[in-house]
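Reminder: ligand-aware prediction takes two inputs, not one.
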Amino acid sequence: MKLWGGRFTKETNQLVHNFNASLSFDQKFFQEDIDGSIAHVTMLAKQGILTEEEKDTIIQGLQGICQDIKSGRLEITEEHEDIHSFVEANLIERVGDAGKKLHTGRSRNDQVALDMKLYTRKEVQEMDKLLKELLESLLRIMKEHMDTIMPGFTHLQKAQPITLAHHMGAYFEMFRRDRSRLQDIYQRMNYCPLGSGALAGTTYPLDRDYTASLLDFFGPTLNSMDSVSDRDYLIELSSAMSIIMMHLSRFCEEIIVWNTNEYQFIEIDDSYSTGSSIMPQKKNPDIAELVRGKTGRVYGSLISLLTTMKGLSLAYNKDMQEDKEFVFDAMDTTKGCILLFRGMLDTLTFKKENMRASAEGGFTNATDAADYLVNHGVPFRDAHGIIGQLVLYCIDKNISLKEMSLEEYKAISPVFEEEIYDAISMETCVAKRNIVGAPGPEAMKKVIQIYEKYLSEE
Ligand code: ARG
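Here is what comes back for the chain with arginine:
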């Protein structure tokens, strides 16, 4: 059944129907469509626009449709244009004339705006929960590895020693910001468009505050034209999801590198690895690679929606139907990736000895050797030059700074004393970095307390 056959004299061309229809993807929010309709008729009855009996009949019919779709008894069939038409047609089939009153004071424009918001709101909450769980895993690892020394990198070259807790803490910060972005979006989007009609509201005395509160919104939206044509929150969400994926992707890249035979900082668990069909020795980090790879699809949703919206005059245009497939895909992809990533993280093994041995190489303590000289009165620029010469000397002899004898040190600068060895030990290098945000254990302990409080708060 069509909702709009009256003024037409010809049947719709089949290809046009197929091209125009959104049922194949908007059936994803049948539940939200029905919830919105129940709120709408409840309000219509309260306002005396429908009788109590009509309201009860319609609600019973809608609940029946919902149950039947869930149980598989009712199949969502392709002859309908969209989920809104499907539900309405089905309702009329079930309850007769009362069903024809469901759409009083409503347009599919405010209906679809509502359904998408209800669906998205739920997705934002689920995504936030998944991120919180990921943060719990990260915090656990941080607590376990406060003194697991590893090299910190810049340019993927060894730079200075850090701890695994500190490295994990960097991702904790990223995903914490991601949650706060989702929470911001929620605050901005959670206003109810229902009652905006096609674009100019309606002449019926709808109580928009009431429907908004029935559906757990903060209140109704304040401009009906904006309400039916606003997709900002989906763009914001696509942007937030793109950033989540970018963070996951960077993390995956590190996991892939750390898992290589050259690094051997970690071992991904067998349950999160895959093999090769030809090379029997292989154990590949496919999950990390796929998460990294899927980032592109989520970026796609952002660019696609920005482009769709950029030329649209007010108010609703059919272009807006294109807000769904990409964004649904991005939501499913992002949630799936967070979940899979967390599983991989929870099960991987950190090889502490290899991390520590790696930190010992590559002169990661050279800055601390220079600081030692500065602490003994040498100007920093001179100290930098002296340690540079020492590094060159060590490279030539294929030794590390700690393997040099005190005589060798003194030959380059008489300022060096026995304490230099302690000053350049990995433990000292880390422990001395004790200001807020640094890897030193005292600083890390304080940060971990803040994170614990943050996670216990909701
Ligand atoms: N399927 C449509 C969409 O997703 C529903 C709104 C239809 N409104 C209209 N005026 N054709 O946007």
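The first strand starts at residue 149 and ends at 154. The pocket of arginine is lined by residues 22, 26, 82, 108-109, 112, 316, 318, 320-321 (CB under 6 Å). We will return to this case in the review session.
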